[in-house]
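Encoded backbone
================
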Amino acid sequence: MENVGFEIDKATGDGKTHASLHCGAYYFKLRNQPTSITEVASMSNSFHTYTMEWYPDSILIGVDQQMYFKYKDKSSPLAWPFDKAQNLILDLAIGGGWGGAQGVDSTMTSQKLVVDYVRVYQLK
C-alpha cells in the first residue's frame, strides 16, 4: 500500500491507494514498476484491511477484500526475487520525489501511522 497526501480529500478522507511492486527489473527509478490504483472511501478516517497474498508464482494485493493488483512475472531472477525471504516495511514517508511533488502541507504539525495489527500466514 502506497499513497500520497495530495491524493487524499481533506474533507472526506477519501483517497487513492497504490499497489506497486519493486524489484531489480521493475522500480520507480526505471519508471516501469507495475502499479495499480484504487479508490478508498474514508482512507484517512477509518481502519482498512490491506492484503498481500504471496504465492510461489504470483503476488496479489487488495484492500477491504477487493483484490486490485496481480503480479506474475517469473521471466528472470530480477523480475522474480520472491523465492527468497523478504522484509516487511511499514513507514510514514513525507516529502521526497513523489510525496513532495506538490509540496508538503505547510500547516501540518504532525502525522500518525496507526496500525492495528499485522498478521502473517504461511500456506501448508
Observations:
- Strands lie at 15-20, 35-40, 50-54, 59-63, 66-71.
- The CA atoms of residues 62 and 68 lie 5 Å apart.
